[in-house]
């Protein structure tokens, strides 16, 4: 287009209109139209089956994202769902961070590059076992604020952040309406679960959330999860282990499952959750059987809570979640593979599931046949909800056996393509290989130094004083886990409490409390189960005259869920008392709660001097002498190491350590607490039974043990040569057992049914041997398989050795053609059991 300088205004206007028209036409051809009806989400007018999985970008590294997303796509997902984490992006009001693991745009573009859709849960309240549910603590400290209710101060901040995110995303054309990957967005999170106590103000807030979201004009539908009264046009969705009984509050929106919990999170001192592949698959199949068309796994990859990002309190650093991709991004088999097969079958039925007529036939005994008919296609689901009895039914002249608590899917209503209880995917066993470069743990050489606390425990020196016990968040703004509360009290023998037997009694909502009197440690205590406890300890060294009481209160992740969770106090709630017991058993107390308390936020080495940092000015203050203290509180340890060779994920084993925070090359890999052991009871000795409803207490393991001894060190944190590991040990530990390991597949087992093709893989390594193979009715479990009474005449082990050994992956048809006719198996479906070594 040529502009002549004498172009008049009218011509200029016409030219501009022409340009705008061209742009908008080009734009609309790029745009993806997302709409919905009572059956499904429609993409460009077509109803879709959408299988999605949650990956929270700050819980892995940008270097891991492409692989995680590729594996998600290979696993049969169409979309990736993530929250947006407000407190990571706006740690200080109006100071933003979108770098590194917080690079939301890079994450969304990685999803886009892989050809997947994205579901963006802006919240900005997240929950997610994330520190304070994702809220920045400065928000809580704003004058006049009330969170998650009809409060102008809060709503202004929420709108400000929501708009900031929407604008950033729009600028990069990432909404589907702009041609980008984001097909849905979410406002708030499960407000419906907690809303009642907020009364009318809660309802007003909810309506405001909807209006505010709509005004963002993002061109794709908005979701509200667990919100049965979601104002239109918000689509209310379901979260839980099962959502087949869910019905949305509007007949013109589809049945959407935003959180299918693939397992559960872990907590310090807790047991290890485990949800079987059979049960997750059952829940998914039931959802699609009952008209669901969009579901999201929470989590598909759980990842790691680096730094101080865990919520809770007491959520562990690992957020593995027993998800299909494990904490490090490896396939969690058989969950990943079993669900992948289900996804393939569901996708193959997309048209009939989203457009077909649905007919439900109750077969009695908790068995239902649901058939979908579209044009000349008929597809069926047959579920057996019975928790113990298998069912044999006759349907359209054919017999079908449906194992208890399972769903069979028959894309043609005749042949079973999938049954949720028949796992034909290998179970991989991960081994942790000690660092080849270092060999023995003892080869790490350690230096150390104490955390200097004398100015608090001997000097009582702080930043300011107040005649009241202050709430911890209000003082620290959560810039540190630690807050010192210090006061002086004059005692003399005329004091009514003065006696031989004097104690400190402290009512506290600290997660951990360390008490010192006159520079000497009294004791430490931590919350177990309830996050309010009474610290009661005898103190033998109160003296006449001035006594200094120094109390160090620590948090271990701020609460992230519940009505008014943000108001749960942390720190010394009080009262703080000295209790004197006279020889005549008379008890006298002196309340110190309204004394003058001096406050200091943080620890000097951790928060001020940053001793973990690579360029710390205090590098020379470490000691290399032989007197390294072991099992002493408040000690820093430092070592250097070479990383394990190769590209396998790396963990550092912190067995022997107490509680603290670990840093690799100056970066926090999270809090550690291996010394906190889970209760001894509640783990079943028998194998986990997938039948019956799952909850997070079912099938737990690891009783009496630490929930986490191994901590993920992302490869991108490491240099090829020398790296540093710095540990701040709060409780006392022994670093001599600390060592680095790489995580790899050590072997795998499979139990595949006749008629399937079994794929075996060492996931990047070679299959080195076949330990066991038998086709027929083998018994036992992985590691102790045994041949059964019937078996095929051809030696299964020889066949598998020939087909698989020396290869990364191999496939074998589980059939009589391959293994020969196995006689006297009766009606039993024949299986191939295999154990491979990598
Ligand atoms: C849900 C919540 C998620 C997560 C989950 C448990 O209620 O929406 O954010 O906290 O529970 O892992």
TrEMBL record:
Source taxon at top rank: Eukaryota
GO molecular function, a single term: carbohydrate binding
Keyword Signal found: yes
Signal peptide: 1-31
EC number from the UniProt entry: 3.2.1.23
Matching SUPFAM superfamilies: (Trans)glycosidases, Galactose-binding domain-like
Record-linked Pfam families: BetaGal_gal-bd, GHD, Glyco_hydro_35, SUEL_Lectin
Recorded GO CC terms: plant-type cell wall; vacuole
UniProt entry keywords in alphabetical sequence: Glycosidase, Hydrolase, Signal
GO biological process, one term: plant-type cell wall modification
Catalytic reaction(s) noted: Hydrolysis of terminal non-reducing beta-D-galactose residues in beta-D-galactosides
Domain SUEL-type lectin: 752-838
UniProt-listed InterPro entries: BetaGal_gal-bd, Galactose-bd-like_sf, GH, GHD, Gly_Hdrlase_35_cat, Glyco_hydro_35_CS, Glycoside_Hdrlase_35, Lectin_gal-bd_dom
PANTHER family: BETA-GALACTOSIDASE RELATED
Similarity field: Belongs to the glycosyl hydrolase 35 family.
Protein name according to UniProt: Beta-galactosidase
């Amino acid at each position: 287009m040529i502009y002549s300088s004498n172009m008049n205004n009218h011509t200029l206007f016409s030219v501009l209109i022409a340009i705008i028209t061209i742009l908008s036409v080009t734009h609309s051809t790029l745009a993806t139209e997302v709409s919905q009806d009572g059956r499904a989400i429609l993409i460009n007018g077509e109803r879709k089956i959408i299988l999605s999985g949650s990956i929270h970008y700050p819980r892995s590294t940008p270097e891991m994202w492409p692989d995680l997303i590729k594996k998600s796509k290979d696993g049969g997902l169409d979309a990736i769902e993530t929250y947006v984490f407000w407190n990571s992006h706006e740690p200080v009001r109006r100071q933003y961070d979108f770098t590194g693991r917080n690079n939301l745009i890079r994450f969304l573009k990685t999803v886009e590059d892989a050809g997947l859709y994205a579901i963006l849960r802006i919240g900005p309240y997240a929950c997610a076992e994330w520190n304070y549910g994702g809220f920045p603590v400065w928000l809580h400290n704003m004058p006049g604020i009330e969170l998650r209710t009809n409060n102008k101060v809060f709503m202004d901040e929420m709108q400000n952040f929501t708009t900031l995110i929407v604008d950033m995303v729009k600028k990069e054309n990432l909404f589907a309406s702009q041609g980008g990957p984001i097909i849905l967005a979410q406002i708030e999170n499960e407000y419906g679960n907690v809303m009642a106590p907020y009364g009318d103000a809660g309802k007003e807030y909810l309506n405001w959330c909807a209006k505010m979201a709509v005004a963002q004009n993002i061109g794709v539908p908005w979701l509200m999860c667990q919100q049965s009264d979601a104002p239109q046009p918000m689509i209310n969705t379901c979260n839980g282990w099962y959502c087949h009984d869910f019905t949305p509050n509007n007949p013109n929106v589809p049945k959407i499952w935003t959180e299918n919990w693939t397992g559960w999170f872990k907590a310090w001192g807790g047991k290890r959750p485990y949800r079987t592949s059979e049960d997750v698959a059952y829940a998914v199949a039931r959802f699609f059987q009952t008209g669901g068309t969009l579901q999201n796994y929470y989590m598909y990859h759980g990842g790691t809570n680096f730094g101080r990002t865990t919520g809770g309190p007491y959520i562990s650093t690992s957020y593995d979640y027993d998800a299909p991709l494990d904490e490090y991004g490896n396939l969690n088999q058989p969950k990943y593979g079993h669900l992948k097969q289900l996804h393939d079958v569901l996708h193959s039925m997309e048209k009939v599931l989203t457009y077909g007529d649905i007919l439900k036939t109750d077969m009695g005994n908790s068995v239902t046949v649901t058939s979908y008919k579209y044009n000349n296609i008929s597809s069926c689901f047959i579920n057996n909800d019975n928790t113990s009895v298998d069912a044999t039914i006759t349907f359209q002249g054919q017999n079908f056996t449906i194992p208890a608590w399972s769903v069979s899917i028959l894309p043609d209503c005749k042949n079973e393509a999938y049954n949720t209880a028949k796992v034909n995917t290998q179970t991989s066993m991960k081994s942790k290989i000690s660092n080849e470069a270092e060999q023995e743990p003892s080869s790490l050489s350690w230096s150390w130094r104490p955390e200097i606390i004398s100015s608090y425990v001997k000097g009582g020196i702080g930043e300011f004083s107040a005649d009241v016990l202050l709430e911890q968040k209000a003082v620290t703004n959560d810039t540190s886990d630690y807050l010192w509360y210090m006061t002086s009290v004059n005692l003399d023998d005329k004091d009514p409490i003065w006696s031989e037997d004097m104690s400190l009694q402290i009512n506290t909502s600290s997660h951990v409390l360390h008490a010192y009197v006159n520079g000497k440690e009294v004791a430490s205590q931590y919350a177990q189960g309830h996050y309010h406890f009474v610290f009661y300890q005898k103190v033998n060294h109160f003296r006449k005259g001035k006594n200094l009481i120094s109390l160090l209160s620590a948090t271990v992740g701020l609460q992230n869920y519940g009505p008014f969770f943000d108001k749960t106090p942390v720190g010394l709630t009080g009262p703080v008392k000295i209790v004197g017991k006279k020889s005549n058993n008379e008890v006298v107390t002196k309340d110190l709660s309204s004394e003058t308390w001096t406050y200091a936020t943080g620890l000097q080495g951790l928060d001020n001097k940053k001793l973990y940092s690579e360029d710390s000015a205090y590098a020379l203050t470490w000691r290399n002498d032989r007197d390294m203290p072991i099992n002493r509180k408040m000690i820093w340890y430092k070592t250097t190491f070479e990383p394990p060779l190769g590209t396998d994920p790396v963990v550092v084993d912190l067995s022997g350590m107490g509680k603290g925070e670990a840093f690799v090359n100056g970066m926090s890999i999270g809090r550690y607490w291996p010394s906190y052991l889970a209760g001894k009871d509640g783990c079943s000795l028998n194998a986990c039974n997938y039948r019956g409803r799952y909850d997070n207490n079912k099938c737990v393991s690891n009783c009496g043990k630490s929930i986490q001894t191994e901590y993920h060190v992302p490869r991108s944190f490491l240099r090829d040569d020398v790296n540093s590991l710095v540990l701040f040990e709060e409780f006392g530990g022994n670093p001599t057992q600390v060592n680095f390991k790489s995580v790899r597949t050590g072997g795998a087992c499979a139990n595949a049914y006749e008629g399937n093709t079994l794929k075996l893989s060492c996931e990047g390594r070679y299959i080195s041997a076949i330990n066991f193979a038998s086709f027929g009715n083998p018994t036992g479990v992985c590691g102790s398989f045994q041949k059964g009474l019937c078996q095929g005449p051809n030696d299964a082990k020889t066949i598998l050795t020939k087909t698989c050994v020396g290869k990364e992956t191999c496939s074998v048809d589980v059939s009589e053609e391959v293994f020969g006719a196995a006689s006297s198996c009766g009606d039993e479906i024949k299986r191939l059991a295999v154990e491979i070594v990598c």
